[in-house]
Amino acid sequence: PIFTTFPNPVINTLNINSITKLGLVRVFNTSGQFILNEVINETDVKVDFTSLPKGLYIVSVGDTVKKVIKK
Hints:
Layout: E1 3-6, E2 13-18, E3 23-29, E4 34-40, E5 44-48, E6 55-61, E7 64-70
Antiparallel strand pairs: 1-2, 2-5, 3-4, 3-6, 6-7
């Protein structure tokens, strides 16, 4: 599905939104460690970035991939 992520850069909470159910959502760092890897049967999800180190993260929903930066 087409989805949006905001804010970018993220400080505390990353919002992932879609007009359809998200399905499989994966958020991982550049080392391949998963922060989130689950099926979301909703149109939106909030991911807590508070305890994560600063850097680049990858958000994958279905076949679509986006990059977000943690400040």
